[in-house]
Every structure is written in C-alpha cells, then in structure tokens.
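User: I'm new to structure prediction. If I give you an amino acid sequence, what do you actually give back? Let's try with this one:
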Amino acid sequence: MTGTGADPPRRRPARPRDAASLILYRTRGRHREVLMGRRPQASRFMPGVYVFPGGAVDPGDGQVRPASQLSPHVTDLLRVGGSAARARAMAVTAVRETCEETGLMVAAPGDPGEHPDWAHWRTAGLAPHLACLEITGRAITPARLPIRFHARFFLADARHARGRIGGDGELEDVAWLPLAEARGLPLADVQAFFIDHLEEVLEHERHPHRRPTFTHRHGRRYVRYG
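Assistant: Good question. You get back a string of structure tokens that encode the predicted 3D arrangement of the chain. For your 226 residues, that looks like this:
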C-alpha cells in the first residue's frame, strides 16, 4: 500500500502533573548552602542530575492536617481555580517529599491525621510546618517530553527543619552544597535557574513582586514573571 503523502498526526503533549519541590537553604559563615541530591541513573525522569527534593502531588496530601497554615500571600500566589485547599496540598507535597528523599522534616508539634503515609510524623507528635514556606517560582516541563510536571518551588530556611540527612534512596548523595559548588555539578537547567534566583532573593532579602515561571519554547529556555 502506497503512502498518501499526508503528514503523520501530531502527538498531543502530555498534560503536566501538579508537583512541588522545596529549596532548603542555610548560611555557614559567608556562604549560602542548599540541600540537593542526585537522581539515580535508572530514573525515568532527569536521570543522573542533582535536584532539590520534590515530586508529584498525591491524593493523600490534601487530607493532612498541618501544624501551621500557609501565609495568606503564599496561598494567593498558589491558588489554582480559586482553591486554597489545593494550594495547601502542594505545600504539604513539598514537605512530604523532602522528608522522604532527605530525611529532614519541616515540622512543628501537631497531629497530621490518620493517613498511613504520615504515621511516623504522628508518632513523633509532628505535622507539616507550612507557615515558614515561601513560594519562589514554578516550572513546567517542556511539551516535547513524555513525562511532564507543573512544579511549584517552595523556599524555607533550614532552621525550620528537624532530623538528620538520610532518606528513602530516591535521591543519592544528599548533602548541603555551597551555591558555587552546586553550580558545577550536573544540573537540569531548571535547577540551575533556581539556584541563581535563590542567590538574588537572599542577596536582596526579599522576593520580587512577581514570581518566575520557567519553561521552554521552541527548544529554548523561556522565563516569564507574573
């Protein structure tokens, strides 16, 4: 059978899943450090690169009772379809993923509820401490990739974190890294962008009025503020 000469149908881009990451930072002398880990080479998404802890929003994240609430301005910046509950779930995701992947808990005394994923928090008498979180930006995976996320990047001072570095093995070589050292590691461009953005925010000790959204258009990096 001969071809018709028609162009093959274009594949519709995968719909991005809601996700959240947490950039934990601390100051050592005159140096700023961030908590990062390396994704295993066998990972389907961004193998072998250093990332901030994070992942997709789970249904159970919306059922957790935090020890403190997001600040009103962060809730306003995060609202999707006017849902404060969805904004809270994204913040909980960032805290949960950070605990799972690094062992550190951004927590305060409280009861997270009965969801089984939070049993060890409940045993410790702790729940997510959301009031210390700032929203620093977001990123959308390029449309050409089969696995896509719409990730919200939260920011918190490590003084609000408890525990020791460990984790479930989803990230390797988890460590505190000076910003200059982190820039020299294998990074996805989105991680490199948010390292530079973090340095600017900390230098001025305030966030810009508008937050960046990092993505790609026509194969090139594209950042817009809003």
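You can read the tokens as a compact description of the fold. Here is one thing that stands out. The radius of gyration is 18 Å.
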